[in-house]
Design goal:
Bound molecules: flavin-adenine dinucleotide
Number of domains: 2
Order of helices and strands: HEHEHHEEEEEHEHEHEEE
Number of strands: 12
Structural class: alpha/beta
CATH topology of the largest domain: FAD/NAD(P)-binding domain
CATH architecture of the largest domain: 3-Layer(bba) Sandwich
Strand order of the largest sheet: 3-2-1-7
Strand content: 15-25%
CATH superfamily of the largest domain: FAD/NAD(P)-binding domain
Helix content: 25-40%
Length: about 240
């Protein structure tokens, strides 16, 4: 790239190296936009972008490299700077800079591709050891480590991700329970009848299900999770 091109380039910063942030980089590369932009990507996670949709396959043998959305050298060879393990903690709009714990970086254009974060219900004790979320490769490492010394697991939330997490816990040989706040499993996707069919179908997976369990009816007890539902008065205690 000529010195003239570099001088006329704008600084484009992308915050977030998830599926969307990575797709944007691919589009920029494929469409020749790097002629106009010098691109820097910040990723809070230590891994380069990976296929989060297939995250659970990590428990059935896939690793970070096979889930990755590109080769390890893709960013470098494309001329894009990827800064992993570096979270943006502030956007200084008046100075047009993003701030991380490692420095300040000027931008002309800024894209936020930061995705979403798991909602953790305000259940007393939700900050205890062994109370984990299911979203990143590091989360799955933490779950796997916690499972090594456990015999039981409770998944709070019986939606798509909750059932996927429950299947993962079962795969880790944990006696698994699912607690759902609504009156059926997957309440966003199916009606009552569908929820009943689903529960029947999943029975053979040997989960225990508790529904109609409002967050206020739950408490995370030490040393592991105890989940109970006041409405159904059924109680499940890990041993
Ligand atoms: C287990 C699982 C299964 C799923 N299955 C499906 C499915 O079957 N179908 C489907 O459509 N969707 C599914 N999803 C949802 C799908 O993964 C998300 O919709 C998709 O990943 C969103 O992409 P994104 O790039 O917007 O966000 P993300 O993939 O969340 O990426 C955002 C990235 O930005 C980083 N970041 C956030 N803040 C900062 C910051 N301040 N500085 C630097 N980096 C930051 C985050 O660490 C993250 O790496 C699933 C999700 C999970 C967890």
């Amino acid at each position: 790239m000529s010195t003239q091109t570099m001088a006329s380039q704008q600084q484009l910063i992308i915050i977030g190296n998830g599926m969307v942030g990575h797709h944007l980089v691919e589009q920029l590369v494929d469409n020749g936009a790097l002629e106009r932009y010098q691109v820097t990507v910040f990723g809070e996670e230590r891994h380069r972008a990976y296929d989060r949709v297939h995250l659970s396959e990590y428990f059935s043998g896939r690793d970070a490299d096979s889930l990755a959305l590109c080769e390890a050298d893709y960013y470098a060879t494309s001329g894009v700077e990827l800064r992993t393990s570096e979270a943006v903690i502030e956007i200084d709009r008046s100075a047009q800079e993003v701030v991380t714990d490692q420095g300040r970086y000027p931008y002309d254009r800024l894209v936020l591709a930061t995705g979403s974060f798991p909602f953790v219900p305000p259940i007393p004790g939700n900050d205890r050891d062994g109370c984990l979320v299911y979203r990143t490769l590091d989360d799955l490492d933490a779950i796997q480590a916690a499972a090594e010394n456990a015999t039981t697991g409770v998944v709070v939330g019986g939606g798509l991700l909750g059932l996927e997490a429950a299947n993962a816990l079962r795969g880790l040989n944990l006696d698994t329970a699912v607690v759902e706040f609504a009156s059926r499993l997957m309440p966003m996707q199916v009606d009552n009848e569908g929820g009943e069919l689903l529960r029947e179908k999943l029975k053979r997976w040997a989960y225990r299900y508790f529904w109609n369990a409002p967050p206020s009816a739950l408490k995370m007890a030490k040393p592991a999770a105890t989940a109970w539902s006041s409405k159904t008065t059924r109680c499940w205690k890990p041993t």
